[in-house]
Design brief:
Elements lengths: L3 E5 L3 H13 L4 E6 L2 E5 L6 E5 L14 E5 L3 H13 L3 E8 L4 E7 L5 E7 L2
Parallel strand pairs: 1-4, 5-8
Antiparallel strand pairs: 2-3, 3-4, 6-7, 7-8
Length: 123
């Protein structure tokens, strides 16, 4: 159902470097690359993530209650992506761990303050 998610940034070069390294951890790469808009994905039919300088010229801000969840296949991948995010300067919003009997997740904020989650369904 989701085609792509767009996150605002105030520093496209810095955000691009962050997402290049973070999303490479899960095999995603740039699929579109413009001066003010970059998209990463795994294949054209799969959902993707993009960053953009706001079209209206105002500063990008964080959406209160907005979070992008990245589906992983197993807990080790959740742990690795969370660790990579922190290595790249992310703010920890919740260490990797079980959140219920079959939901394993970790939370972090990108360099612009956008909240992301890496998760997997276990058992």
């Amino acid at each position: 159902m989701i085609g792509y998610v767009t996150l605002g940034t105030n520093d496209i070069a810095k955000a691009a470097k962050f997402y290049d390294e973070l999303l490479a951890e899960i095999g995603a790469k740039r699929t579109m690359d413009f001066d003010s808009f970059i998209v990463w994905g795994m294949n054209p039919q799969a959902p993707s993530i993009s960053i953009i300088k706001p079209y209206d010229g105002n500063p990008a801000t964080v959406g209160n209650g907005v979070m992008v969840a990245l589906a992983m296949g197993k807990p080790e991948q959740v742990q690795a992506l969370h660790a990579k995010a922190l290595e790249l300067g992310s703010k920890d919003e919740g260490a990797p761990g079980a959140r219920s009997d079959n939901f394993y997740a970790a939370y972090f904020r990108d360099l612009d303050g956008n909240k992301l989650n890496a998760f997997c369904i276990t058992g």
